[in-house]
Amino acid sequence: MITIDAMMVCLDLSDIDEKLVAFSRSICERLQVRKVYFVHNIRLYELADDFREMLGDIDLSQEVEGNISDIVAEQFGNTADYEILVSEEPNTEVILADLVKRYGINLTLLGKKMSDKSTGALGTKLLRILPCSVLVFPETASFNVRKVLVPIDFSDTSVHALRLSKELSDQLGLQLEIMHVYRLPTQFFPLISEAEAVKKAEEIVKAKFADLQKRQREIAGVPYTLVRAANKSIAERITLHLEKGHHDLLVLGLKGNNPLPSLSLGSVPTEMYNTDIHIPLWLVYSGEVIKKPRG
């Protein structure tokens, strides 16, 4: 059973906050979550001088906490034990990373606006620096999750994401599909025929799947799809498959081979985060990765 000891919900005082808090409630109703932290960081240096003067003696942190309390009371209630944390630090990503370590956060819930409303720069920084799994909830996403897609590249990271997806699917009665995107070494064309190259590549990948199913017997019955990248990136192929298959959740493993978090995200998760998909994106760090010492 998937148990989340501590979940952090990052709020930005925008319209997406209500949806994010409501989604956190949905998570707590489906999974065992022991503690939820609703957090917001006030970057005072971004406030104009005339606005600061207008505030006068008003305790901004207290006002923000009151606003968040109202949203939580309406959208979350007493679904799980929770705490509201409001800080005033110049660097939001650093303070959030500190909270992850201080409170033993397993999962961070992060809202995401569409690209025409936000650059997503802070979100990308958070993905690189937070030493925990991140569940990204787009503003257009639904709470109703029935079908899960987990792309894998046979690395330990992606296999961990697959195991979590299988456990999640079994626990909640979801439909799970595995996907692998492969590329052909086009520099050898026309020395060998394209059809022969495709056949050989798929034979190799199917052999890898067979070996994986022997090692991870719990995923033996999970259907998988092989997709050729062709003239598109892996992320583009994943996006097209999501649209075609009407999936409700995408799960990806976060790379963790490098001890420096800033170098461990991986290109596919980054590209998928920056793509306007309309379903939640669960970016998974393995427990082993989280516990690795940071250099």
Automatic annotation (TrEMBL):
All copies of the UspA domain together span 145-269
Cite the SUPFAM superfamilies for this sequence.
Adenine nucleotide alpha hydrolases-like (SSF52402)
Give the domain of life.
Answer: Bacteria
The cross-references to CDD domains, in alphabetical order and at most eight, read: USP-like
Q: Which InterPro entries match?
A: UspA
Pfam families for this protein:
Usp (PF00582)
**Descriptive protein name:** Nucleotide-binding universal stress protein, UspA family
Organism of this sequence: Pontibacter chinhatensis
